[in-house]
Amino acid sequence: MAFTGTEQGGDSREERDSSTGSHPLYVSTVRTGLVFGPGRSMKERRPCQKSSLKSGMDPSQSVKCKIVVVGDSQCGKTALLHVFAKDCFPESYVPTVFENYTASFEIETQRIELSLWDTSGSPYYDNVRPLSYPDSDAVLICFDISRPETLDSVLKKWKGEIQEFCPNTKMLLVGCKSDLRTDLGTLVELSNHRQTPVSYDQGSNMAKQISAPYIECSAQQSENSVRDIFHVATLACINKNSKNAKRSKTVRANKRISHMPSRPDLAAVSTDLRKDKAKSCSVM
């Protein structure tokens, strides 16, 4: 899988991952208003860089999907998007209001164009955040595995908000910062508050409660886990769009059938013709 990403103000980068197959993955990103620290090194990870989309790809033949990312503040939303788009982990935290990324890649012969919306989890933006929901194909509900209270927010806040503003949109539950589940410092800090990191089973059970798939990732340590999330989300979008397309065709077909003139009763027409002939006969 070839991977490229673009962003204003960066350099070029290209990487091939032979373990994930031969289908290319092309990603371009656009963001404004963010200030990131230098990229944190990971296994074979390169600094934040820039390259262009592969030429020759016809946008008119692509499938467009909109994915909105929500969750409590500092739960890992922006890092998730930044690692997927730029292959580098942001060192410093800068609060997000709204940021938009675009990504393009191919699944077999189908080109996919993603519009990725990063939102603020702060209560101060509760009245503004719903502006990002219209026309969304999937919503990623993120929580921080090292902060159990962020998992509680999934039921207390995020499920209800999504059902109110985009009830027919596919939801995916994402456990972020999975590397902190075994981090000694995190374990000590949580134990001081008589808490433990969110287990996989706890996340999975929550996903069942909201009828959503569950997937975990570590944006800091596993780039592949991040890619898996957007692969699953993209497939959910494609399935949703395919069902909508089939439903739309069925509705149009039903409308055409309902407007077709009814077929005449041939037997009745034949009887009327015989009656008319009988009336026109004269007796000689």
From TrEMBL:
Region described as Disordered: spans on this chain: 1-25, 38-58, 246-265
Gene Ontology terms: biological process: small GTPase-mediated signal transduction
Keyword Metal-binding found: no
InterPro entries linked to this entry: P-loop_NTPase (IPR027417), RhoE (IPR041843), Small_GTP-bd (IPR005225), Small_GTPase (IPR001806), Small_GTPase_Rho (IPR003578)
A GO MF term: GTPase activity
Polar residues composition-biased segments: 49-58
Entry GO terms, CC: endomembrane system
Keyword Kinase listed: no
Record's compositionally biased regions (Basic residues): 246-258
Main localization, broad class: membrane
Keywords in alphabetical order: GTP-binding, Lipoprotein, Membrane, Methylation, Nucleotide-binding, Prenylation
Subcellular location: Endomembrane system
PANTHER family to which the protein is assigned, alphabetical: RHO FAMILY GTPASE
Biological function: Binds GTP but lacks intrinsic GTPase activity and is resistant to Rho-specific GTPase-activating proteins.
Similarity field: Belongs to the small GTPase superfamily. Rho family.
Protein's name according to its UniProt entry: Rho-related GTP-binding protein RhoE
Species this chain originates from: Poecilia reticulata (Guppy)
